[in-house]
Amino acid sequence: MNECFRRAGLRRALEMGHRTMPVSSAPVNIDVERNLAYREAEDCDARLNLLDIYRCRVRGEGPRRPVALFVHGGDWSGGSKLAVHGREGGMAHWFAMRGWVFVSMNFRLVQNPLSPDADIPDQVDDIAKAIKWMSINIRRYGGDPSRITLVGFSSGAHLAALLACDPVYLQRYRLTNSVIAQIICLDGAHFDVPLAIRMLAEQSLGLAHQDRRVRKLLRLMGEDEGRQRRLSPAGHPLATLAGTRFLLLSAGMQGGGGQAFTKVMNERFSIQLKLAGVPVQHRHFAALGHKDLLLMRDEDCRQCVDAFLVQGGD
Predict the structure, then answer these.
(1) pLDDT tens, 241-284?
(2) What is the pTM of this model?
(3) Residue 245: exposure state from Cβ atoms within 10 A (0-12, 13-18, ≥19)
(4) Dihedral through CA 197, CA 203, CA 206, CA 208, nearest 10?
(5) In sequence order, what are the residues at sequence separation of 6 or more whose Cβ sits closer than 8 angstroms to the Cβ of residue 19?
(6) Three-state DSSP class for residue 255
(7) What is the Cα 312 distance to its own chain's centre?
(8) Taking each helix axis from N to C terminus, what angle separates 193-202 and 210-221, rounded to the nearest 10 degrees?
């Protein structure tokens, strides 16, 4: 697949007030529609309501293509839709070259000056609204809106899983979780928020600054365990997800050393999904770091994702 890409000059993009980051231009045969508004809101910076669409250029109409929606990470407070770019093409181009319509979205950020009043449920609502927008508009870009694959990275994996597990978000837009065919969670960990807080507070898991992580989770998720449970994908009845397939990928390295937190959390969530009859695969990459799963430069990682998509009939 690398022969489909060509090196191009890098441009600099300033995204949502964060630091400037290098972004590669698209391969010559990939069309990119940038900064399409999927919602209107007066409570946040307009840049948080935008999405980008990537698709491989083909002649004629052809059949409708499968659609993937990427939910970025950033500890719920940062990050952007540009996370899927990379100097060698990135995840967006990888999906597009496989015949997918790939969508990467921004959304409201918690405890961020660009969306000062936003909360975790607002972020999930934004994902649901983006799916509603896609159900109406994605055909114009060659996509099939009937069965969508969600791809979430880090905190974005938590948000994507919560959207699928708590039906209230999609119901607001007259949708059900049947519209979500598959979910790929790339090094997510907070599928059970109360358990994550307890583990980080009580156990040495190889993560740096575990006490700081606990304090941030309590600020974001609240100290009330009932709220924490509502914000946990595992806190909702999972049997309703029988038609949605999950792929959970976890990484074992951080800061040059090993850590066990994400592996344990993914293993536990995988068991819960299996007990509920939900199709799920979990693969742990002990030698890879957190961002390695996002960049998808590891051949085993790419093959794992590719096999999952093929099994799902992409």
Answers:
(1) 988 999 999 999 988 889 999 999 999 999 999 999 999 999 99
(2) 0.90
(3) buried
(4) 50
(5) none
(6) coil
(7) 18
(8) 150
